[in-house]
Amino acid sequence: MAKTKARYVCRQCGFSSAGFLGRCPECGAWESFSEAIIAPKHPPKSPRAGYELSGGQAMALSEVPAENTVRLRTGLVELDRVLGGGLTPGAAILLAGEPGVGKSTLLIQAAAKTAHQGGRLLYVTGEESAAQVKLRAERLGLDTSLLWVLPQTSLPEIEREITSGNWNIWVVDSIQTLQWPELGGPAGSSGQIRECAARLISLAKAKGVPLWLVGHITKEGHIAGPKLLEHLVDTVLYFEGERDRPLRILRSFKNRFGSVNETGVFEMTGAGLGEVVNPSAFFLAERPKGASGSVVTPVMEGHRPLLMEIQALVSFSPLAMPRRQTLGVDHSRVGLLAAVLEKKVRLKLFDRDIFVNVTGGAKIGEPAADLAVAAAIASSFLDKPLPPDLVVVGEVGLAGEVRRVGRLRDRLAEAARLGFTKAAVPLGEADGLSGLKMEIDGVGSVGQFLYRHLNYTNRGGDRNQ
Ligand code: TYD
Ligand code: MG
Question: Please, are residues 132 and 108 in contact by the beta-carbon 8 Å criterion?
């Protein structure tokens, strides 16, 4: 056997160096280096199982036989949708998220459902004992009689077990706990994560068994393990949410078997994760009617339009530097919109604190919500409510103009479905929305919106602005 050599590898980003370093020159992390024995590269005997490319001869794409893959449904509708319709044979799926967000809960719930439909699933747990897994499953009211669990962190043992049984789904929770003894370094080091994952993925491909890998991302946003694995796996799903709020969103970041624009919405309850079948209603559940500062806007979560409520509170500030605080919308975007309101329609916001919040713990990342944010701020400032059955959508430019947004028809259709009867939309898109059962108001500028819906006139300023 060839000689092995020691290297030091950053656990955050995988940067490797011949000597120990206190700080990683690549990602800047402190004390992140640990020793990893890099196994000598054996000359590849054959390509990794499952990655073989057959033949190597040119052929017309139209003559390539279509793969008729039967997808295995997990039984959770939101999860199946994000996966692109279910699990494909041999697919490696990484479920990444912060500790405590609910990854294990999601998988054990999906596992129980799949087992019920005849799936033979093995749950490898490296983090919790078998008893803990059982306790949780029972607490969630799941039928444990069909679930198989393997408390193990040693990769050779896991390989032996998963290949000897007749399982048709493997779950490994989590990849950071696995260890391949031949390779030095602690579990969770980048070398271990990469090697263990690559081996499991090869096995999954060779056997045609879907493989779930759970990966933790750290609080600071470092995606130590998951980042290393993104190119190895077929699908990367991120499970997001804040601990003290029930909302959880499952996003597809990469998917070789489906769209990356799908999202699943869940709610963490005392009895596990519930699927939020009607997310718009969820986000609007406690909406106060007739309150100033509240605006509803349709945002796109992947392919799906969702209605969200934006709330603003504008109050006199005792501070020399008034506050601009936001939750769920980009802070600098709110600053920009406040500046537009001040300059273009002369709302005197300079001595006011502005708080903007998206209710339900959701996050809005698209400028299509600009007009709604501006409307919420103005509504609170003027202390005038907007009509309760109005939705507002449009991007706002620095000149105060309202710009086009994508998928407007889909957004409005969702609003109409939930009983909204009026929509303020970008002027350029107001025509061409025929067929929607809504009163459509095309607005060209923020000033026009405020004039028409809040009866506010920009005295001394330009009427069209
Ligand atoms: P868990 O699935 O263990 O998270 P992860 O695997 O991502 O680390 O979820 C742990 C959190 O979820 C924990 O803080 C408690 C909460 N939780 C509930 O609120 N309700 C439940 O029914 C369960 C099982 C967990
Ligand atoms: Mg867990």
Answer: no
